[in-house]
Structures are given as structure tokens and as C-alpha cells.
Amino acid sequence: METSIWRALLYLVGILAFAGVNAAWLGWCERKGAARIQRRIGPCEAGFAGLLQPLADGLKLMSKQLLVPQGVDGIIFRVAPVLAMIPAITSMVVIPFSENIGARAMELSVLLLFALASIGMIAILLGGWASGNKYAIISAARSVSQNLAYEIPMLLTVITVVLLSGSMNLREIAIDQQGGFWHWNIFRLENGHFLTMWISFIIFFICSVAETNRAPFDMAEAESELVAGFMTEYSSMGFGLFMMGEYLNIVVGACLTATLFLGGWDCPFGKTPGVWWFVLKIYILIFTFIWIRWTYPRTQIYRLLNLSWKILIPFSLVNLLVTAALIKVF
Amino acid sequence: MTVPVHLRHDETFVLNLGPQHPATHGVLRVKLTMDGEYIVKAEPVLGYIHRMHEKMAENGTFAQFMPNTARMDYLHALAFNHGWALVVEKAAGIEVPERAEYIRVITVELNRIASHLLWWAAFLLDLGGFTPLLYAFDDREKIIDLLERVTGSRLTYCYLRFGGVYNDIDDEFVAGTRDFIKRLRGRMPRLYHDLVTHNIILIKRIKDIGFVTAEQCRRYGATGPVARGSGIDYDIRKNEPYSVYPEFDFDVPVFTEGDSMARYMVRMHEMEQSMRIIEQALDKLPGGPVMGKAPKVLKPEAGYYYSAVETARGSLGHRLVCNGDKNPYKLKLRSPTFSNLSLFGEVAEGMLLADALAFMGSLDLVIPEIDR
Amino acid sequence: MSGYLSDIVTGGKSLVTGLAITAREFFRPVVTEQYPWEVPTMTPLFRGHIELIGNEETGEPNCVVCGMCQRACPSVCISLDGKKNESGKGKVLTRYILDFTKCSLCGSCVESCNFNALRFSRDYNLASFDKNDFTMDLMKRLEEQNRCKR
Q1: A43 vs chain B: nearest CA distance in angstroms?
Q2: Looking at the structure, do residues C25 and C73 belong to the same domain, yes or no?
Q3: How many domains in chain C?
Q4: Is A101 exposed, middle or buried (0-12, 13-18, 19+ CB in 10 A)?
Q5: Pick from C8, C19, C30: which is nearest to A39 by CB?
Q6: Nearest CA to CA, how far is C129 from chain A (Å)?
Q7: CA-CA distance, B288 to B27, in Å (whole number)?
Q8: Tens digit of each residue's pLDDT (9 = 90 or more) over C12-44
Q9: Domain enclosing residue C121, as ranges
Q10: pLDDT tens-digit profile of B243-301?
Q11: ipTM value greater than 0.95
């Protein structure tokens, strides 16, 4: 891989554009999706089908005063929203959009993604803590215990994928799955891996919903209990950055799921692979996120931890053992 | 000198829930003493929307208080209308034509369904499910349209009059009501039960949470679905029948578990029973006038009068004292949610914040009615 | 243990059912009314603020200044004045002010009127930045209506 300055610039602009467009228009998708599920129209006034709504929202947020209440920890309070945004954008560096599109193919890209995902959690913790608001602190504490609980099963299931592909490089993992949907990790036919991998997929998907703080696991911003959770004291773009960070986390989660389990940029029917397949897959996954959010009521923090420690972790451990055994036997 | 928080041995803190909070559905304030996410002590603070309705009754004529009744429990306004009409009719000895009684029952029961639908929607909103709200509002909208046709207003109805009702119902209303019942029965199993009632997240959220014993209900005077969810078989419509309720065949759903799920199920079943009452009333609907003979200026004889009705939230009692004048000497309302809310402090102790709010949602609070 | 497993199975099933229901709703038509573009039909009994009814021929208000509406009103929103009719007997209306800020639209006034002099208007766009806009002179309103009729 040649490393010219132009390539770096191109990817910088490309990733920022991709992140920005997604962060803005996923809000629109969410509102439209929710509206359709609830049999409403949703945003429809600003531009065609309300497509300019994110711009209007952004302008409105930017024109608001960025309030820093008395008694908050000033620096941390200001840093937290930025910290929510940066790891999500940085994660995109290692995501392979197709065989040739991908900023950087690192050997340990899976590990890097998880490290960055944890920083997102720290942003919530810092934001909640610095606000000096009781609701925000409760929310921060919740989000930490939630993220800790869900990172374990998530990593355990990722290990099954890593075992199968023998690599921690996302690009290698995707290349390993080329050639039609029967090669994808989720349906992998050879050596009977389809027995365990779909369980891995479900566990991974549940965990990624929980990791991105999405309903029904949105403990940190449970508006009927904690007003707005860690975002209670944030106004203007401080709030806007948290929202954008949340959407970018969803994008990263969807990209990761698509790469690890759904063959990355591979065509399901063994035809020409390409970046469009990858994009299609991630948007289907993102729609599923939205769909889930607008279907279920919220869980409760202890039920959520129970789900992780009593169901997901035992299942993923057994799953990991069975996968390892299958690899050993065949 | 105050000790800084981090040096205090006692690590509890006070969380002011409300008066502006998404979960309190109005201006209720609950002072919570919390230990982490556990509630050590919960103390509801009332009075943020106290409007002196009882005093206002003393200052106006009997008829002038009718619009006020609808503004207390704005979700089951017709039952409050009914309660006031009943006690004044009792005091002044006014006869109500049979058709008017039937129309009262039909509209009050329709309003009860609307109230339960809105409770269901708001309860799910408390639990973080937004979509069911819109489905319930879709159905509720149909009821409101029907009631708007006959009463002229959409929420704070002022429809009942001493000696009858304000306006007769027409064939279109009857047909519309039948259509609505058919529609709700069709939608109930899927959109209400499959989507929500049987949902594992909801079950885990409200089953075995917020236990209220029958003894507690008696001690605090809790009525309505709260008492019926704790195994107390008490419904004024059955136990102290008024109006034409004895003529209908309906059940009073009672659940003995006493948890939030039981209260949830009581209300879901009550909607079905209300539909049964409406159907029977529509079948039997007699002809005749809808307004009996009532004097323009009411001057009931001096004395004490009491009558109670069953609203969507429990029993509503009107205690009326007359001194022979054309306005009440004293009026005391016994409103259901005031007693139901009183339970909260005792039951919420030791609960998690999230569970306590789910429990509060299951009590079905309407704040203006608590404060009056 | 059996409870644990059956919870997972039935729970999972209930979650899938939920998704199926919302997916089906997703493709069904919209039920909401787009208010400023679509206006719902008003029922005949719609209660707006009150207005005076004019005589069919002369356009003069039907009101005989009996004051029943004023007495019936629970919120004291109505104030009216009349003077002696110069040509015949009875009184004619000179001033009819409705303080709509206090009105709760109960309709007691319309009901109490025995002379067919009051009715509910069909106005519903009642929003203003100025409180004084809601102190309505119903005589003026009637005059305007008469002018429009002509």
C-alpha cells in the first residue's frame, strides 16, 4: 500500500464526509422510520420529504447558546461531547468498505475498534459526571455498568469469528468470506460452523445495540426516568455532538457486524462484489436498529445486566468452546 | 456548618422528581431520598395545580359547577359530570328519563375506554415504548370524534345536565359506536396484546414489581383498578349500583397478584367489559326525551347528600351540604387518585428508581384531580 | 433451569412477533391528518366562542337584554348593556363584551338564552400575542357579519 499525502487527504475528507452525512441524515431516517411504523408521515415540510430537516435542525442547534451551568467541571464538560464524536469517526479508519476502499488495513483492527468503542463510553461517563446533575450522574453510572457488561459477550463472540478466520484484520476477515452467502460467517457451511455462528451473530447484534446505547437498552438516556440522562445539562451543539456520536456509533456497529458476519462487500449470490453491497448491508442493519427501537419498551437496568451475565455470557462462552472444538475436530 | 457531601457518612441524596418531569404527567413533585438507584424514602408533594374547585362550587350555582367537574379528571370527564349530576339530582329530587340514563351510560363507558387507552399509552411511554402510544391514540381519536359529535367538545365535556343530557344521540353515533367496538376488538389482540402485553421486556419490567396488598389498599382507601388488581372485588357500578348499571350484564375483572401487571390486566379487561356494556345499552336503547323536568333555578332542601360513581381511576364521591340556598353550602370531593397516590410513598420504599416510576405509571395518576 | 430456557424461547418469540407487527404497520397507509393542509370536518355542535344572532331582515341582534346569559356564566365573562327601545317596548342591546380569556366554552349561556340570540361561532384559529384580542365586542362582530352578508 503506497502512502502518499494525497491518499491520506482523500480518505480524511471521505471519512469525514461519510461520517457527517450519516450523522445528520440518520436522524432523518430515524424520524421517518419511526413515523412510518407509527403510521405518521414524519418530517415533510423542509425540502422534498423533509430531506432538508437535518440542516434546519443543525442550524437551529448551532444558533442556540452553549450553556455551561454554574458548578460544572468546565473543561471536562466541554471535552465530553467532542470525546463522544472522535472515537466514532476514528473507528472508520480501519473499516474496509470494499477490497480497495479502506483507509488503513491494520493487523489488529478488531482490537482497535473495541478500544475506541470504550472511549465512547468514557465520554458519557465524563459528560454525566461533569454536569453535576443527579440525573446525569445516575445515567453515567448506568452506562458504565452497561458497557462493561456487554463488552464481555461481544468480545467472546468476536473471538469465534477470529478463530474461524485466523486473523484480527477486518480486511482479512472479509476476504475470508468471499464467494456468496454460504461463505459468510453467519451461514458458514464448511465444518458445521453454521451451528454456532448464527448464535454468535445474534449475541453480537444484541450487544452492539446495547453498546450503542440504543433502545431497548437506552438506560443512559431513559427520558421517562432520567429526563435526558447524561445530556440533561447540554444545550446547543454540545447536545448535537452527543446525538451525532450516537448515530456514528450505530454506523460503526453496523459496519462491524457486516464485516464480521455478513461477508463485508461480498455479493450474496456470488456475483461481482463491490462497495454497494457493503453499503446496502449496513443500511439494512441500521434500519433494523431503528426498527427495534420503535418496537420495544425499555428494559430496566438490572434486567439488562441479568440478560448479559446470565444469558449472553454463558451462551457466548459455550458457543466459543463449541466453535473451538469444531475447528479442532475438522 | 454544613459538611461537604463527600465527607458525609450517610450517602443518601435527595432527588426532586418533578414538578416538571417527563414521568409525572403533570405537576406532581415527588421528593425522593435515594441511595444510589434505590429509593429510601418517597414523599409526594401536592398542590402545584390546586385550583380550589370545592370552594368554586360554593360560590356558584349548581349548574355553574358542571364545567368545573370536567376539568378535574380531564381524562374521564364524563364520569365526573355524572357524579355531580347524580348528587344534585338526589338532592333536588330530579327524575331522569330512561333514554337519558342510557345515553349517560354509553358516553361514560366510551369515555372510560378512552381514558384507559390513554393510560395504556402513557404507561408504555413511561416504560420507554413510544410506538404503542400512537396506536392507542389512533383508537382514542375515534372515541373522541364520536363524543365530539354528541357533546360538542373533545376533552373537557360538559354534557350531562340535571335531569338528562345536553343533546340526543343520533343513528350515526350509534352506528359509529358499533363500528368502533368492532374495530377495537379487531385491533386489541395484535396491536395491544401481541405487541405489548406478551412482550418479554414488558413482562419482566412490570411483573412482580410494585406489590400492593389488599390490606394496604384498605388502609389508604385505594379504589378502582388499583384495588381490583390487589384482589379487592369492589366496583361501585356493581356494589352500590347507580343509574341503569344493574340492567347490564358485565363482569368486574379482579386480579389477586397485586403487582403492576395485575393492574395493567385489570384495565385491559375493563375495556372489554365497557364495550360489553355499551353494546347492551345500544341494543336496549329506549326512545323518549333526553331531558326530564328540572327547575331552572335549583334550591334543594337543606341536608347532607352523598353519592358515588366509578370513574376509570376508582370511586369518586361527592359529599354535598345544602342549606336551601341556590348554591351549595359545602362540597367535598373524594377523588380516587388522591388515595391511590398515597400508596406510593409506602410501596416505593426500597424500589429502584426505574421500577418506582413504572409503579407510578401503573397507578394511573391524573394530577388536577388529586389537587382539585 | 426449565424456566430459564422457556423464558428465552417464549421471550425470543414475543420479540420476533413484536417486530413482525411493527414491520406490517410500516407498510400500511398513514392515518394522521396533515392539519394545515387538510382541515377536519367540524361537527354541527362545535363549540367556538359565542356570537350574537342577528335578525334575518334587519340584522339587529335578537337579544332583549334579559341578562340570563350573564347570570348563567360560571366564569363571569359576559358583560352587556341595553337601553330602552325608543320605537317599541322592551330593551335593545348597546354593548355585549365577551372576555374570552376566562371563558371555558361550557355553553351555559347559549343554553340559557330563550330568545335565540346567541350561538357558537365556527372560529377555531384563536391565537394571539395580545391578551386584549380576546376581549371581544360581539356587537361589532355582528355588524361586520351583516356587512359581509350584504
Answers
A1: 16
A2: no
A3: 2
A4: middle
A5: C30
A6: 23
A7: 44
A8: 888 888 888 888 888 888 888 888 888 888 888
A9: 50-149
A10: 888 888 888 899 988 888 999 999 999 999 999 999 999 888 888 888 888 777 788 88
A11: no
